[in-house]
Amino acid sequence: SQQGEEDPQALSIQEGENATMNCSYKTSINNLQWYRQNSGRGLVHLILIRSNEREKHSGRLRVTLDTSKKSSSLLITASRAADTASYFCATVLYNFNKFYFGSGTKLNVKP
Amino acid sequence: DVKVTQSSRYLVKRTGEKVFLECVQDMDHENMFWYRQDPGLGLRLIYFSYDVKMKEKGDIPEGYSVSREKKERFSLILESASTNQTSMYLCASRPTSNYGYTFGSGTRLTVV
Q1: Beta strands in A59-98 (DSSP E)
Q2: Which residues in chain B touch residue A85, judged by CB atoms under 8 angstroms apart?
Q3: Three-state secondary structure call for residue A82
Q4: A43 to B40: CB separation less than 8 angstroms, yes or no
């Protein structure tokens, strides 16, 4: 499978703590994207990192990409209860037409 | 605000029925996608379309077909619904290769 696989499957932290989730994949990619899904809703695009980039920031989000290890991490700093959601990575191959999603990390931020 | 709209949030159908799931986007995106999401299996691509009247099979097309007569509308058809098609169905669109998807809110389909 070319899917990204997130780790851990579930994460529970206190408000104000940082949350780190990881994604590993198998084949060369053009870019990797992170999405958030609130319970029972569609996915929302958070951030995209290209294969020639190593780190990217967006607000409280920090994404890293290590193409030699075929892995990425998403760090959410100073988490809030509203960050409670499932987080998915999607790997985009060079033909662009298909994104491969993992099964997600379920984040619970306790107030 | 740009949008992908799925016509139904919840749907209950009987085994053997023909089911239509509708998706409309207002962003003039060329590419549209149908995924299904099941616990432990993540999102799996059913079909996608990169232009009007064009379609390509995804990873799990069996039991499904699609229609794209207009750029803004992409329909998923379950020819004869079965209980193993009970799932959350997500429609998405995107403009170019380096942009992310915009997803609809999803349709939770139950086949009884």
Answers
A1: 61-66, 71-76, 85-92
A2: none
A3: helix
A4: no
Rounded to whole angstroms, how far apart are CA atoms A110 and B25?
Answer: 35
Q: How far is B95 from chain A (nearest CA, A)?
A: 11
- A 10 A CB-CB count for B97 gives 13
Nearest to A103 among B40, B92, B102 (CB): B40
The span from the CA of A78 to the CA of A17, in Å, is: 5
Residues of chain A found within 8 Å of residue B56, distances taken between Cβ atoms: 97
Tens of pLDDT, residues B24-75 = 999 889 899 999 999 888 899 999 998 898 899 999 999 999 999 999 999 9
Q: Which residues pair with B70 in a beta bridge?
A: B73
In this structure, chain B runs to a length of 112
In tens, the pLDDT along A18-39 reads 999 999 999 888 899 999 999 8
Percentage helix, strand, coil, to 5, in chain B? 5, 55, 45
Residue labelled with tokens 């191959």: A93
